[in-house]
Predict the structure.
Amino acid sequence: MFRFKKIDLYIFKSFFTLFLMTFFICIFILLMQFLWKHFAELVGKGIGPDVLAEFFLYAILTLVPLALPLAILLASLMTFGNLGENFELTAMKSAGISLFRIIRPLIVFIVFVCIGAFYFSNNVLPISQTKLWTLIFSLRQKSPEFDIPKGEFYSGINGINLYVRDKKDGLLKDLMIYDFSGGFNNATVMVADSGRVQFTKDKKYLLLILYDGENFENLKKQRITNSLSNIPYRREIFEYKEILLDFDSDFTRFDESILEDQHVSKNIAQLTQSIDSVNKIVQLRIKEQATEIVERRYFGREIEPGRSLEISKNIDLKKYDPDTLLNSFDPIDLEVVANMAIQKANEMKNQIEYNNIILGEPQKYVSRHEIEWHRKFTLSFACLIFFFIGAPLGAIIRKGGLGAPVVISVIMFIIYYIIDNTGYKMSREGLWTAFQGMWLSSSVLLPLGIFLTYKSAVDATLFNTEQYIKFWDKTKQKFFQVVRRKNKNYEEKFIS
């Protein structure tokens, strides 16, 4: 029966403290990278602190699947690196305690972490991803905060570039407005001595009031001749002019139902149901298309729709031997037959391409759902694999702190990320099945974890440089001995 002892409690405390620290550090680093990626959606939009807090919360929850395996790897490396560096691990092993007995409390803890990771991935992650991407889509549609700078062009209004030389008491001085909403070749340029800006009551539009100015409109669409020099334009001189521009300053949140049928918003049960239902539709379409091609266009024989396929099977195919048919035609009829064959082949090609397009979207839908289904399990398994890589690796290198463990963790995680991303893209493009692509990283790293665990259990010195230098010297000596022996044999043959 398993019972915690003092050594178990000591090992667990050492690991758990480092695990919490590394987990929050990983979350912070990944969050900074995520914010940099979505920098344009946040800056200059006048978003309130409640919306920003909501964005940060959903982003953190979404980044847990990446941060958790990395934190486990780094924490296990640092824990057993510290134990090895302080000779505590050596003292435990000299007392007859095996490596598996030392890491036993951590194995129990990691098993619970894997179960919790699966629960999180299946129940919490779909909700957080749905809310996060709904919020991102809403922020992308939010107009930037209206603040016209002095001496710079303001492009926060769609299709409009606004330049103001000076501002004083709400009055804008020396305005220039470039309107490209009708296209670059049909631009409108306005200059005004002064003007004011105000929102409508519903805050959906921007009212621009201009005083003492001119309006130049390019009428390139009305050009009569082909000469570029004969492009008409319209000039308007005004003392007072009002322009109403679309500018929704309110933050409108999209409904979360826009993502209800996406793979990121579903758990295991919902993904399985969607995969089964769409797979049935795909198989039905494939069968209908194959039947239509065989019954109506098989060898060019036009068969009435609805007739049994057995009719075409009962036709003697020997009568349709190509060589016999071609030899029975004269040159004129042969040309007609060849043209008809080319036409039917093109029709068949177009039909197959059309069928491929019709099947492409549901097949892509199924592929994305299958990838997400397997991702629910790969997160938990990755946590287990990274522990059995980090713990024995830390016991072998015997280096604690944030130096070597961080470097090794980053290298291992980059390798894992590249392999995992490669498998994901291969599955997404349909080159591999979802099972092959999503379990690629686990199948590559699992043997590495088993190998390192075995080497650590037998106290192997994988990173002893003296051992590799001796091995290189022995290999070099054997090589030169072989070379000398061969040269001696050549000399003896040449003399004889």
User: Anything to note?
Assistant: The chain has three domains: 6-142+372-465, 153-246, 269-366. The chain has 14 helices and six strands.
